[in-house]
Amino acid sequence: MKRFSVLYLFKKQYHHILCETHAEADTELRKLFTKKKKIPLGIYDDKTELFYWEPVRQQKFDRLTLQEQGKVGNEMITIAQNLRSRDDHWVPNETQLQSDILQRPLFLIHD
Questions:
Q1: Residue numbers of the domain that contains 43
Q2: What span, in angstroms and rounded, lies between the C-alpha atoms of 51 and 44?
Q3: Cα–chain-centroid distance for residue 75?
Q4: Residue 19, in any domain of the structure
Q5: CA 73 from centroid of its chain's CA atoms
Q6: So which domain of life are we looking at (predicted)?
Q7: Does residue 12 surpass a pLDDT of 50?
Q8: Mean pLDDT of the chain
Q9: What angle do CA 80, 1, 23 make, to 5 degrees?
Q10: Dihedral sign for Cα atoms in the order 3, 34, 69, 84
Q11: In a domain, 107, yes or no
């Protein structure tokens, strides 16, 4: 199971990248800084249900009141949980399934 989600904004919508380790998530977060249209937000840990802001946003977050920090932090956690839940329940349609030998038609040969 992929424990971490790297959250980012793209075209004013939230997206995430699932990662198995925090180190992998850190690497993915750094990669997002090189993408012009993707805005990195931080890393969500599904096991502890904590959100770690990327460094610039962390500085802005630290300036908020405790009440504002709680509100914004809970919003990010909810967004991450919803993205993860959506992906857990996603079922691909026929065109998105990878073909597999077990999915090919079976032709029976009669004598």
A1: 4-90
A2: 4
A3: 15
A4: yes
A5: 16
A6: Bacteria
A7: yes
A8: 84
A9: 75
A10: negative
A11: no
